[in-house]
């Protein structure tokens, strides 16, 4: 897999003009684009179709989390649109993930598509888990537990902070995917992310895909920023254990 294929470019916009501008600026450089909640609520399947028309792949990042039957039906509906990656939230539990996985396998039009689960958001730190969510476990332990649960439920992978990637890799099968947000080039601002690595670090830890948005989309030259991050990833691949 080429370095550019490991970048999932986050289209964190609400305006379709910004999406079109970014697609034009990248002009085929990006293989994957992430369509998140804000953009999907704003424009629905129109934006997915817009990205697919460029020949790129789509990660539909909705973090589905509801009762098992509702999530399963939602996954089945999403499958009609030939998305490449879809996610649910692992905190929905084993039955929800298992039902979602069954619906995905049955309805996926794109046979290479993958259903993955979000573990713990990278905007959450230990204080949030302890004081607000009252989960009561250290973040690394909780993330690994949720990853193993997702694998047992039949999902293809998880979304997790780069800090937990190596631990996940030790706990699951090699083919299990790890998608990593919270990745920032050394020169970039952290914004609202609290648990971050550089692209090279995340790749060396064993991440399959890196979700990166503002360091590229808000750069003066997005195409150049994408190229530089791809070079960082390539360096990480060359020095990976």
What this model shows, in words?
The protein contains eleven helices and eight strands. The chain has an eight-stranded parallel beta barrel, surrounded by seven helices. The model has no long low-confidence stretch (mean pLDDT 93). It starts with 6 loop residues before the first strand and ends with a helix. Helix 4 packs parallel to helix 5. It has 241 residues and is α/β, with parallel strands linked by helices.
- In one word, what is the shape? globular
- What is the gyration radius calculated from CA atoms? 17 Å
In DSSP terms, counting alpha (H) and pi (I) runs of 4 or more, how many helices? Answer: 11
Classification by helices and strands: alpha/beta
- Percent of residues in helical segments? 40-55%
Largest sheet: 8 strands, parallel, barrel
In the CATH hierarchy, what is the class?
Alpha Beta
Please identify the oligomeric state: single chain
Q: End-to-end distance, in Å?
A: 16 Å
CATH homologous superfamily? Aldolase class I
The total tally of domains equals 1
* CATH topology description: TIM Barrel
Question: How many runs of DSSP E, i.e. beta strands?
Answer: 8
List low-pLDDT spans. Answer: none
Strand content: 15-25%
In what order do the strands lie side by side in the largest sheet? 1-2-3-4-5-6-7-8
The CATH architecture comes to Alpha-Beta Barrel
Mean pLDDT: 93
């Amino acid at each position: 897999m080429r370095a550019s294929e490991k970048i999932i470019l986050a289209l964190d916009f609400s305006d379709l003009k910004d999406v079109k501008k970014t697609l034009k600026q990248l002009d085929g450089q990006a293989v994957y684009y992430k369509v998140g909640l804000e953009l999907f609520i704003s424009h629905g399947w129109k934006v997915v179709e817009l990205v697919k028309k460029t020949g790129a792949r789509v990660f539909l990042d909705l973090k589905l989390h509801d009762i098992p039957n509702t999530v399963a039906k939602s996954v089945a509906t999403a499958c009609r649109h030939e998305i490449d990656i879809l996610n649910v939230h692992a905190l929905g539990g084993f039955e929800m993930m298992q039902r979602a996985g069954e619906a995905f396998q049955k309805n996926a039009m794109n046979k290479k598509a993958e259903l993955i689960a979000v573990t713990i958001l990278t905007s959450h730190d230990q204080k949030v888990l302890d004081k607000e969510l009252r989960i009561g476990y250290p973040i690394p332990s909780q993330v690994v537990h949720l990853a193993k649960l997702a694998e047992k439920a039949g999902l293809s992978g998880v979304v997790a902070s780069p800090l937990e990637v190596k631990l996940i890799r030790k706990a699951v099968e090699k083919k299990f995917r790890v998608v990593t947000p919270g990745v920032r080039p050394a020169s970039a601002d952290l914004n609202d992310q609290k648990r971050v690595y550089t692209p090279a670090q995340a790749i060396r830890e064993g991440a399959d895909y890196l979700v990166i948005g503002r360091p590229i989309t808000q750069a003066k030259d997005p195409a150049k920023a994408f190229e530089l991050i791809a070079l960082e990833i390539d360096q990480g691949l060359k020095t990976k254990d």
